[in-house]
Automatic annotation (TrEMBL):
<feature type="transmembrane region" description="Helical">
    <location>
        <begin position="146"/>
        <end position="167"/>
    </location>
</feature>
<keyword id="KW-0256">Endoplasmic reticulum</keyword>
<comment type="pathway">
    <text>Glycolipid biosynthesis; glycosylphosphatidylinositol-anchor biosynthesis.</text>
</comment>
<keyword id="KW-0337">GPI-anchor biosynthesis</keyword>
<keyword id="KW-1133">Transmembrane helix</keyword>
<dbReference type="GO" id="GO:0005789">
    <property type="term" value="C:endoplasmic reticulum membrane"/>
</dbReference>
<dbReference type="InterPro" id="IPR009580">
    <property type="entry name" value="GPI_biosynthesis_protein_Pig-F"/>
</dbReference>
<feature type="transmembrane region" description="Helical">
    <location>
        <begin position="117"/>
        <end position="140"/>
    </location>
</feature>
<dbReference type="Pfam" id="PF06699">
    <property type="entry name" value="PIG-F"/>
</dbReference>
<feature type="transmembrane region" description="Helical">
    <location>
        <begin position="188"/>
        <end position="208"/>
    </location>
</feature>
<keyword id="KW-0812">Transmembrane</keyword>
<protein>
    <submittedName>
        <fullName>Glycosylphosphatidylinositol anchor biosynthesis protein 11</fullName>
    </submittedName>
</protein>
<keyword id="KW-0472">Membrane</keyword>
<feature type="transmembrane region" description="Helical">
    <location>
        <begin position="60"/>
        <end position="80"/>
    </location>
</feature>
<feature type="transmembrane region" description="Helical">
    <location>
        <begin position="220"/>
        <end position="240"/>
    </location>
</feature>
<dbReference type="GO" id="GO:0006506">
    <property type="term" value="P:GPI anchor biosynthetic process"/>
</dbReference>
<feature type="transmembrane region" description="Helical">
    <location>
        <begin position="33"/>
        <end position="54"/>
    </location>
</feature>
Amino acid sequence: MASTTVINANATSKLQPSTAAPIEPLKNDAARLYTHIHPILVLSLYAFKFPALVADPVSTLLGTLAPLAVLQIAFVAVCMPPTGGAPTIKKQKPGEKKPKGPGQLEQRLNSKIVPAFLSLLLTAIAATPLLTTTLVLFGAPVSTHHLHTLLCGAHIAILSTLPLVYVHGVNGETWRQIVALLLPMDEVYGGLIGTVLGAWLGAVPIPLDWDREWQKWPVTIVTGAYIGYAVGKLLGGTLLKGKKIMFD
């Protein structure tokens, strides 16, 4: 029987794991503060909307997509380095005129906000259909509840995939390592794993014969995804940071 172990990022593996280092949050006061506040805000948004979600899943899931996207964009823009890290600064030679460049606001837009919105766009057009299809393959209703499943996939995608696209881009080799669980744990990767595991565990109450309104599709799936995201992000940035999940 296969066993699962967690080992240090520098340990060798038969699967030839990536030598990439965990993603470090930006070293400024705003990043340090918001990275801790962010999961509280995400869970608070969901808790506030939970009664409405049980009563009307489609309208509530649709209405909370924009606030969730704003929170995720704020998280990556404030706390995380975009793909490629910080730009290199060219040293100026003595007597050389300083070249005119973009202003501070334009630099910030180009380096942070634009990549964040591009990450949201890629999440919407690529990750959401993929995750929606995965939900169907794992037992979501096929002939009914199409909007329920699509919006559930969208919420899972924004929680798990948007930050990963922002920090890792669309490099094929990096994403193969992400799927194979070869990257070292950090806040962003921990958020992905926590979201997926949470959504999977969230399916457990659905078939139970309790006759509760909150058991209907996809309330428990989304609930598990939100809780799993917050827990995975916390553990990935603290206790499990720099470690990898390997299957022996």
